[in-house]
């Protein structure tokens, strides 16, 4: 059943904005009450000055521009105390205001002006270059570009709004009659997740309703004449007036309630704090980035912020940790509210007295509204269950301009607006917003709210700001959470820091919420003027990173896979590309993200659970089957080694385990030797490595090895032909080294027999007799216990012995492998047959 507001219903008159503000007989404050004050210059407007200037401007529009009802005025300017005058002057003349972000480019501004059908543009001198080009592009004449602010145009090409007056000098111009329910007051453009911004059509009735709703929500805690000096509450206004949050909560609400608004043209944390101290600010509407700065920026401590009684945060959820940290630092409570451009904007706010008891919620629903949470199937969910918030009330917008399909998708036939925000309601009537429907990360059937992870990460001592997005991994066919992080000064932006952050978060969240997409460091998090994270910008960045990564993955994936095995790449002397098809042949995933995760998880002698499934084991088995023809028993040993169950402790570094390690190293060395021997025979135009099954064996390997050594003398050292790399002339810088004995760079990995649970290393039956892994004495039914196997018995070991002798002649007879001595003890003595 839909929830009704806990507030008593209020009477909302059917009047337009002008009538509510300037013809309201119940206005409690006097005409000379200062309403707007410029924080930098001190210039101000009283109530009566605003009204008089607005009427003059409205008459001027009708006289000079022949302004008609429904004409649209583009407002392209940063915050100014002149904004209220030109806004309500345009309304007086029957016009519609379409505020635009002053940070827009020519293309962006031109799109909005054209889509809105603007007849004129109001801007400031510094923004004329963009405004003029955009206006010219869509056919707005230059004389219809006017200025506000303190700076005039010396060339007199562009008039100041104060010079747009009733030239006729008569009283024949009257205020245009407005239909509050149907006539638009604002055409506010809401930034979409994709495509161009959408024009949100807000009627006069929408804005009037929300002013009255918000006043009820503040509960009389803000006054026009209270306080220590009887001057009423002092509000600091830095929220952009081109956004509905600042436009209604600051510009309109202060005029309606008689609060004094000190206007900042743009936000700066030091100026913000200085203005609070200078003007004894008592209340501020803020956004999460500002709250974050108040909790962490060192400049805050320089100023006296004790006059602040309360702050109200909107645009995104705040965590209890952040609210508490700010309160502990500056002793100012922070309550939260909620709203959207489509809701005029405020729908919910926390009561002042509940700011700390319901931290994390956006408070109670304001009067005269109805809400419900809906499942993805559009079925209403019960109290306490998560769903998409749908809301209905007199403040809900009329629709999207020139976008009937968008309107149909957003508004239901019975008047509910589908907010696109996910949350729930508790039994006490508090509403919680956890994330956007379109921003939820879908990880393998789980939903991961970015805001939840961001809230946790912000409590990390090294993190200054953060945004989490989902990146799609086609190999896993799912999204992975990735964090973009701006660290504090002095914190290193390296892999170690990234791993520490990931490990820290991993200990605090469920398995599906881990940062499987990794961590990326950035200088700052992109945000909109209202403080919302611009996730679409980060998604574009992630896509660009992914495109660039494709050229790197083929070179790094095999190296990372090799590191996962614990092999020291520098001792191999082979191009990285050799190992990639080896594992791909078995269907084993070697994408950068997966391999990196595998490598990290094995650092502490434990392997991630990715190989515990039979599917993964079979993939390993297929890879090994094609890698080299080995007896089933030998291949099973490899599979068990690679797919072992994680254990609490690594295997004992005993002789038996050293033997297993050495066998694997020697086997890979032999395979690499054979591969090098055949590499020069691959066609220069080859696009792939030779299939693993074509690895040469026996006497053929010896012949190819000899041919390889002869050929290597005639190949340019800077243009070596490599399998799968095309023409040698296109591959500078690849030099072929003689292979050294492979070395493992970490302790032995624990593994166990999947059927018996018995440790493979501790079970002699798992060391196959005369297997392809074997290069040491081994017992079998066909050989006496004390028999030894000669290296001369197989062609491959002969090649290996000759290569080892070459290495010893270069490095010294005791340089068999330094890493082996460190981890496995001294190398075994050479063996000969009886």
TrEMBL record:
<dbReference type="Pfam" id="PF13193">
    <property type="entry name" value="AMP-binding_C"/>
</dbReference>
<feature type="compositionally biased region" description="Pro residues">
    <location>
        <begin position="825"/>
        <end position="834"/>
    </location>
</feature>
<feature type="domain" description="AMP-dependent synthetase/ligase">
    <location>
        <begin position="23"/>
        <end position="401"/>
    </location>
</feature>
<dbReference type="Pfam" id="PF00501">
    <property type="entry name" value="AMP-binding"/>
</dbReference>
<comment type="similarity">
    <text>Belongs to the ATP-dependent AMP-binding enzyme family.</text>
</comment>
<dbReference type="InterPro" id="IPR042099">
    <property type="entry name" value="ANL_N_sf"/>
</dbReference>
<dbReference type="GO" id="GO:0016405">
    <property type="term" value="F:CoA-ligase activity"/>
</dbReference>
<dbReference type="InterPro" id="IPR000873">
    <property type="entry name" value="AMP-dep_synth/lig_dom"/>
</dbReference>
<protein>
    <submittedName>
        <fullName>NRPS-like protein biosynthetic cluster</fullName>
    </submittedName>
</protein>
<dbReference type="InterPro" id="IPR025110">
    <property type="entry name" value="AMP-bd_C"/>
</dbReference>
<dbReference type="InterPro" id="IPR020845">
    <property type="entry name" value="AMP-binding_CS"/>
</dbReference>
<feature type="compositionally biased region" description="Low complexity">
    <location>
        <begin position="768"/>
        <end position="777"/>
    </location>
</feature>
<feature type="domain" description="AMP-binding enzyme C-terminal">
    <location>
        <begin position="452"/>
        <end position="532"/>
    </location>
</feature>
<dbReference type="InterPro" id="IPR045851">
    <property type="entry name" value="AMP-bd_C_sf"/>
</dbReference>
<feature type="region of interest" description="Disordered">
    <location>
        <begin position="682"/>
        <end position="731"/>
    </location>
</feature>
<feature type="region of interest" description="Disordered">
    <location>
        <begin position="746"/>
        <end position="834"/>
    </location>
</feature>
<keyword id="KW-0436">Ligase</keyword>
<feature type="compositionally biased region" description="Basic and acidic residues">
    <location>
        <begin position="699"/>
        <end position="712"/>
    </location>
</feature>
């Amino acid at each position: 059943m839909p929830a009704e507001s806990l507030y008593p219903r209020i009477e909302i008159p059917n009047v337009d904005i002008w009538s509510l503000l300037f013809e309201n007989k119940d206005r409690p404050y006097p005409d000379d009450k200062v309403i707007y004050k410029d924080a930098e210059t001190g210039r101000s407007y009283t109530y009566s000055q605003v009204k008089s200037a607005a009427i003059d401007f409205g008459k001027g529009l009708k006289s000079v521009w022949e302004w008609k009802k429904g004409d649209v005025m583009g407002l392209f300017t940063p915050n100014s105390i002149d904004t209220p005058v030109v806004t309500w002057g345009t309304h007086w003349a029957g016009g519609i205001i379409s505020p635009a972000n002053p940070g827009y480019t020519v293309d962006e501004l031109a799109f909005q002006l054209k889509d809105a059908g603007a007849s004129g543009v109001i801007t400031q001198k510094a923004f004329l270059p963009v405004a003029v080009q955009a206006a010219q592009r869509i056919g707005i004449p230059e004389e219809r570009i006017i200025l506000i602010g303190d700076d005039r145009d010396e060339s007199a090409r562009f008039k100041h709004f104060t010079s747009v007056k009733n030239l006729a000098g008569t009283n024949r111009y009257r205020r245009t009659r407005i239909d509050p329910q149907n006539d638009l007051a604002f055409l506010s453009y809401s930034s979409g997740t994709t495509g161009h911004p959408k024009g949100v059509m807000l009627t006069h009735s929408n804005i009037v309703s929300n002013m009255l709703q918000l006043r009820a929500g503040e509960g009389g805690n803000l006054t026009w004449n209270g306080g220590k000096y009887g001057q009423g509450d002092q509000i600091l206004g830095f929220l952009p007036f081109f956004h509905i949050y600042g436009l209604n909560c600051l510009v309109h609400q202060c005029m309606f309630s008689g609060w004094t608004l000190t206007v900042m043209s743009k936000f700066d944390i030091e100026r913000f704090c200085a203005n609070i101290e200078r003007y004894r600010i008592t209340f501020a509407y803020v956004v999460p980035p500002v709250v974050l700065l108040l909790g962490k920026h060192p400049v805050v401590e320089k100023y006296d912020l004790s006059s602040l009684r309360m702050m109200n945060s909107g645009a995104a959820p705040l965590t209890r940790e952040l609210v508490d940290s700010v309160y502990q630092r500056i002793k100012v409570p922070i309550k939260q509210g909620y709203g959207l451009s489509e809701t005029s904007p405020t729908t919910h706010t926390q009561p002042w007295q509940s700011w700390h008891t319901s931290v994390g919620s956006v408070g109670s629903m304001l009067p005269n509204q109805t809400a419900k949470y809906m499942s993805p199937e559009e079925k209403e969910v019960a109290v306490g269950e998560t769903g998409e918030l749908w809301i209905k009330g007199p403040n809900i917008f009329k629709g999207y301009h020139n976008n009937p399909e968008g309107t149909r998708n957003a508004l239901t036939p019975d008047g509910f607006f589908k907010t696109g925000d996910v949350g729930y309601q508790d039994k006490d009537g508090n509403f919680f917003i956890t994330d956007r429907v379109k921003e939820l990360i879908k990880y393998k059937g789980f939903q991961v709210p970015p805001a939840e992870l961001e809230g946790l990460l912000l409590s990390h001592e090294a993190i200054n700001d953060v945004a989490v997005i989902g990146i799609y991994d086609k190999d896993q066919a799912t999204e992975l959470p990735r964090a973009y992080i701006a660290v504090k000064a002095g914190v290193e932006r390296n892999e170690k820091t990234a791993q520490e952050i990931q490990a820290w978060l991993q200990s605090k969240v469920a398995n599906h919420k881990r940062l499987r997409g990794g961590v990326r460091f950035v200088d700052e998090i992109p945000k909109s003027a209202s403080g919302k994270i611009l996730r679409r910008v980060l998604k574009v960045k992630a896509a660009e990173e992914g495109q660039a990564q494709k050229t790197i993955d083929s070179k790094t994936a095999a190296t990372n896979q090799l590191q996962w095995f614990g092999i020291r790449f520098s001792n191999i002397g082979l191009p990285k590309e050799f190992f990639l098809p080896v594992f791909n042949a078995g269907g084993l995933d070697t994408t950068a993200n997966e391999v990196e995760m595998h490598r990290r998880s094995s650092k502490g002698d434990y392997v991630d659970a990715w190989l515990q499934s039979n599917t993964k084991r079979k993939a390993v088995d297929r890879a090994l089957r094609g890698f080299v023809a080995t007896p089933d028993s030998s291949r099973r040993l490899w599979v068990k080694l690679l797919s072992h169950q994680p254990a609490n402790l690594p295997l004992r570094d005993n002789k038996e385990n050293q033997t297993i390690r050495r066998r694997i190293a020697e086997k890979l060395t032999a395979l690499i030797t054979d591969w090098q021997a055949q590499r020069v025979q691959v066609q220069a135009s080859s696009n792939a490595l030779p299939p693993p099954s074509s690895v040469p064996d026996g006497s053929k390997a010896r012949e190819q090895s000899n041919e390889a050594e002869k050929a290597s003398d005639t190949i340019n050292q800077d243009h070596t032909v490599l399998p799968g790399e095309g023409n040698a002339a296109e591959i500078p810088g690849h030099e072929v080294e003689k292979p050294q004995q492979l070395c493992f760079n970490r302790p032995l990995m624990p593994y166990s027999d999947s059927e018996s649970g018995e440790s493979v290393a501790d079970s002699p039956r798992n060391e196959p007799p005369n297997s392809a892994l074997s290069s040491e004495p081994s017992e079998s039914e066909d050989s006496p216990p004390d028999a030894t196997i000669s290296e001369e018995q197989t062609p491959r070991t002969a090649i290996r012995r000759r290569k080892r002798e070459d290495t010893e002649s270069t490095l010294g007879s005791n340089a068999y492998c330094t890493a082996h001595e460190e981890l496995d003890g001294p190398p075994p003595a050479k063996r000969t047959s009886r």
